[in-house]
Each structure stands twice: as C-alpha cells, then as structure tokens.
Amino acid sequence: MDREDKEFMEKAACSCHTKHTPRSGAQLKQLQNRLNRITGQLNGIGRMLEENRYCGDILTQVAAVESALQSFGYIILQEHMETCVIEEVLKGNNEIMEEMIDLVKKLK
Predict the structure, then answer these.
(1) Is residue 58 part of a domain?
(2) Residue 49 near residue 58, CB atoms below 8 Å
C-alpha cells in the first residue's frame, strides 16, 4: 500500500460514524442485494479479463457497474438526507449542511 492509500484509509477510518436511525430489515436487505449484484458484475469483469474478451464488451460492463454504483450512492444519499441530516438540523446543527454539500460533490 502506497502513502496515498494509507492516508486515504486513515481519513476514512477517522470519519466513520454510527448511524443513529437504524435501517429497517427491508431497507438493509434491498441495499445488500444491490451491493451483491454490483459485486457479481465486478467479478464478471474479472472473468472477462481472464477470458481475454473484447475490450468494448468489458467497457460496456464497466459502464454498467459505474451506473449501478452511482444509483446505490444516490439511495444512500437520499436515506442520509431523510434521516441523519433531518435529525441534525432539528438538533440545531447547521454544520450538517456543509457535510451534505461535500458529500454531493464526492458523489457527483
């Protein structure tokens, strides 16, 4: 692991929080199912590389994974806004809006 990877991991470890409002069992199952499908797509790309498949076919699958991951991120963002952000605003924490702006920028 190079220096940039270590710095990223340290920042990620420091910024982790626990969600105050738990996800329902149904929500958790839906998110896990989506993530499992994305993992399956990534594994499929790995198999395509091993099979020396056509570059265009691999790129099509890469685009599908990117789209699926983006959709997953938007679902998490919506959930964050509907639960965590609202809770913090009601507590009077206006700094949460800066966090939201940063998260939206990251997700682009």
Answers:
(1) yes
(2) yes
